[in-house]
Amino acid sequence: MSPTSLARWLPFLSWPRPDRHLIKGEFWAGMTVGLMLVPQGVAYAALAGMPLITGIYASLIPALVAVLFSSSTRLGVGPTALTSLLIGASLTGLAEPGSAQWVAMAAWMALLSGLLQLVMGLVRFGWLLNLVTSPVLSGFTQAAALLILGSQLASLTGLRADWGALFATPSPGLFDLTAAAFGLGSLALLILARRWRPNFPAAIVIVGAAGALSWALGYADAGGAVVGALPSGLPAPYWPGMLPWSGFSALVMPVLVVTLVSFLETASSAKVESQRSGERWNENQDLIGQGLAKISSGLCGSFATSASFSRSAINLYAGAKSGWATLFAIALVLVVLLWLTPALYHVPQSVLAAVV
Fold first, then answer.
1. SS3 (DSSP) at 92
2. Are 39 and 46 in contact (CB under 8 A)?
3. Phi first, then psi: what are they for 140, rounded to 5°?
4. How distant is the alpha carbon of residue 226 from its chain centre?
């Protein structure tokens, strides 16, 4: 097989050879994205109803697989808000959030969606992504933002009951005012940071500061909702086990929807990257990379990944030139997984809602 043919199937072989100048820029771009990956991963795992550590798992091996086998090497692949929301909504009523059954069904969603994308890439059905127009992408993004905001309002404001109880008997006692202060304060700071310093990794700074303040106030000891203990170390290989036929049939539509949403998320980010680089977008190879990433996520006991709008944009704005930046981001996630997960214990869950 010629080097050109080999690079077609293994895109990382065509990455630029690292030199001092390139590595310096890639390092700082990778650190910027990596500092976003950890708090977002934990927040999106909560949104999907998964154990919080699985959000960090989904930011490690799936991100590595995606960058190695995708043509768009600067996409921020990992957990995303909309995909996580869809997973949580799809599995509601089928299992208890966070339970072994829930995790198994989420892993199957990742495996089946990934297999579908992989097959579509191999048979060169990527042309379907080119049918997505800019107005469709714009409408999709705005609708997704509204859905995500609605899903996080209760956690963000510290609401202890459901909305029905609040409307029936409005009372300040239904709110955890400390959680509301953490959540709304964090949201305000994130909005200000995005407006004035869009390249600054505000999420990790705010999460860290909130965790320190929560610890100082004894918020967890007072019964406040915090992240809690997270396991350290690499994810173990995971096989979800066979589901009954009724379980698989219940996942058919959710898998198709997650696959479609991943198409849209990938298209919106990859088209921006290809325009900035001046290179033709290889949509089929990106489908293969995204599919393999989802499969690897399911085999880590995590949930379906996709291309993140925000992380992809920040990666570009931070000056990333190739997949080397993503490797540095993944290295930072690895350090967190091995040694730094205890630092997340005291982070209030309302702060995670603000990050989402």
1. strand
2. no
3. -60, -45
4. 20
Nearest Cα residue to 156 out of 190, 116, 108, 194: 190
Asked if residues 290 and 66 have their Cβ atoms less than 8 Å apart, the reply is yes
pLDDT tens digits, one per residue of 138-150: 676 677 777 777 7
The per-residue pLDDT for 56 is 97
CA gap 101, 114 in Å, rounded: 20
d(CA 110, CA 89): 15
- φ/ψ of 318, rounded to 5, equals -80, -5
Can you list the residues of the chain whose pLDDT is less than 50?
A: none
Read off the pTM.
Answer: 0.90
Q: Which two tokens stand for residue 25?
A: 């820029």
- Lookup result for tokens 């589901």: 243
Element (H, E) at 233: none
Strands (E), the chain: 76-78, 306-308
pLDDT value of position 43: 92
Residue 342 is given by DSSP the state: G
Q: What are phi and psi of 196, to 5 degrees?
A: -95, -30
pLDDT in tens, 311-339: 898 888 888 999 999 999 999 999 999 99
- For residues 5 and 3, what is the distance between their CA atoms, to the nearest angstrom? 6
Residue 77 phi, psi dihedral angles, 5° rounding: -85, 140
Q: List the Cα angle 16/325/20 in 5-degree steps.
A: 55
